[in-house]
Amino acid sequence: MRRKRKVMTDKPIKGGVATWACLPGFPPAVIFPFTPGERFGVRSLYEFQMLMYRPLYWLGRDGAPEIDWDLSVGEEPVWDETGRTCTVRIKPWKWSNGETVCADNVIFWMNMLKVKGPRFGAYSEGYFPDNLVSFGKVADDTVSFTFDKAYSKNWVLLNQLTMITPMPKAWDRTADGPADATHDIDQAEAVYEFLMAENGDVVEEDNSHRTRWADSPVWSVVNGPWRLKSYTEEGVVTFVPNEHYSGPNPAHLDELRQVSTTSDEQQYELLQSGDVQVGFLPPGMGVQPDGDPTKGGPNPLGDGFQLEPQILFNINFMAVNFSNPTVAGNMIRQPYVRQALQSCFDQEYGAREVYQGYGWSQTGSIPVLPKSDLVSPKIAERGGFWPFDLEKARQLLSDNGWDVSASPAVCVRPGTGPGEAGEGIPAGTELSFSLRYWEGRPSLARLMAQFRDDAAKAGIEIRLEEVMGSVLVAEDGPGEKRMWQLSCWGGGWVYNYPTGENLFQSGAACNFSNWRDAKADELIAKTVTTDSLEALYEYQEYIAEQAPVIFMPTFPRRLFEVAGNLRGFSPINPYGLINPENWYYVEEQS
């Protein structure tokens, strides 16, 4: 339905309500910023928590992938001459209970990270805070961090210090009353358990425990421009301005609502009806005739909405479960099987046909867009190590003990020698995998069906199963002896700086495939101690060759549709953070 164009003035209107229709299947599941790996994603962090609780450093400035110093609680780090110690001054912003954001609030977070790091989604074993010799309070408004050696300063800022979210004194407590994990690290465990109990079960899908968040004496203490007014059983999240906010850019709107949706079709209906002011076009409905996914093409909703592609500094991939204890896991642990799976994925088809020109092939572990010199020329030139090639996939399997004359292929040469299938794969085993993927996304279902059909031509059976998105990410991911095999939530990872310690380091909290590889660990370690591009190239080439995940076509996270009279939405943050405090309405003239 095309809307009649209205003439907009440039005159701002104070107040008003903006309603955002969110991605189907992903209600905010965690309010506690110490978010575990199974819920560590854009929806809970960047579009929910950070509206209320500001991190030490704010990622993204005016659409560029850099730090916004104005929106950051911390000042720019100052390094000593050894390159191992940095000090950070904390701006005297206010918590909503009147307390001043201070060094103690950072130390509180650091003590919890030191004790409970493996339960935090951005934690990677051996890195922050494991790579610190010490950290401490220098003054009421200043903290220091001393590292075990000199690292890339760019990496420390973007991938390490951005992990910190100052926590108020009001959160330093247990069920028995006030505690002091800020000064006594031995109390951090008990405080963590209390705060996780206040959050509620992070896997449970029912919203009943989330309805208590708005009135919680814990979660109602905020330092961001918004506070939570309500969270309903139906998943409607309502924010109102934090009247005690002391940072820059206070909110213009009276209220921000985030409504849950169940499908792309419902999302589009809400946009057509005018019931929401911010939503997105379902993938496949928008067409980019010029092949430039960074620019909006013709808008099916007409002139009443602005079409804004959300290009993030991200990669998309399908996880494969190395920790599966069955024969399926034994097959996944064979590099040639993963390489064959990657060779069966027609990314160009997905970019061109499924995503209607709003897509591009992802050749490895470094984002292709926004364009940069971070992508290995060797990978860029050959279109990835394992571009779509069904004959190559069949050859890989045939050379390693599989009869591909039928589908699924059958293991005919078991064993661990050259030309044999590999450890734990008996003769007669069929090459078959279950693939769980996010329900309610027709474009993703189409992409998965194409992958299934192409894989079958190479001798690999893919058994598809649709699963609610939030259930999928909670159940399929990091963890020992999990039973899932292949899992696709239609996305991947948004990088700060694209080293691999979060995704591919052994034991990392967000190592979704549960992959462990000593050489990868060694190459990742090189990327974090130097800003040399050669180190980054060597790392990503090894990842591309080993295929610990199946890379998929990347596309704008959303084709945002924004009401024509709502301003301040762009530029789009390349990391996925949002600033609805910048949104405001302008007057309309019929």
**Approximately how much helix is present in the residues?**
10-25%
Q: Give the domain tally.
A: 3
Quaternary structure? single chain
- Determine Rg (CA atoms, Å): 24 Å
Contiguous low-pLDDT stretches (5 residues minimum) are: 1-5
Major β-sheet annotation:
6 strands, mixed
Q: Label the overall shape.
A: globular
**What is the CATH class designation of the largest domain?**
Alpha Beta
Write the layout of secondary structure elements.
Elements: E1 7-13, E2 17-21, H1 42-52, E3 58-61, E4 64-68, E5 78-79, E6 85-89, H2 103-116, E7 132-139, E8 142-147, H3 153-160, E9 173-174, E10 177-178, H4 188-199, E11 226-231, E12 237-241, E13 255-259, H5 264-273, E14 278-281, E15 305-309, E16 314-320, H6 327-332, H7 335-343, H8 347-354, H9 377-382, H10 390-398, E17 402-403, E18 410-411, E19 432-438, H11 442-458, E20 461-467, H12 469-475, E21 486-488, E22 492-494, H13 518-527, H14 533-546, E23 549-551, E24 559-563, E25 566-567, E26 584-589
Parallel strand pairs: 2-13, 19-20, 19-21
Antiparallel strand pairs: 1-26, 3-4, 5-6, 6-8, 7-8, 9-10, 11-12, 12-13, 14-24, 15-24, 16-21, 16-22, 16-23, 17-18, 25-26
Helix pairs in contact: 2-4, 7-10, 10-11, 13-14
Domain Solute-binding protein family: 76-510
Pfam families: SBP_bac_5
Organism: Amycolatopsis lurida NRRL 2430
Characterise this structure:
By secondary structure, the chain is an alpha+beta fold. The protein is built from 14 helices and 26 strands. It has helices spanning 42-52, 103-116, 153-160, 188-199, 264-273, 327-332, 335-343, 347-354, 377-382, 390-398, 442-458, 469-475, 518-527, 533-546; strands at residues 7-13, 17-21, 58-61, 64-68, 78-79, 85-89, 132-139, 142-147, 173-174, 177-178, 226-231, 237-241, 255-259, 278-281, 305-309, 314-320, 402-403, 410-411, 432-438, 461-467, 486-488, 492-494, 549-551, 559-563, 566-567, 584-589. 51% of the residues are buried. Mean pLDDT is 92; it is low at 1-5. Strand 19 (432-438), helix 11 and strand 20 form a beta-alpha-beta unit. The chain has three domains: 8-17 and 217-310 and 561-588, D-Maltodextrin-Binding Protein, domain 2 (3-Layer(aba) Sandwich); 29-202, Dipeptide-binding Protein, Domain 1 (Dipeptide-binding Protein, domain 1), CATH 3.90.76; 314-551, Dipeptide-binding Protein, domain 3 (Roll), CATH 3.10.105. The strands form eight sheets. Strands 16, 19, 20, 21, 22 and 23 form a six-stranded mixed β-sheet that branches. The chain has a four-stranded mixed β-sheet with strand order 2-13-12-11. Strands 5-6-8-7 form a four-stranded antiparallel β-sheet, covered by helices on one side. It is globular and about 70 Å long. The longest helix is centred in the C-terminal third of the chain and has 17 residues, at 442-458.
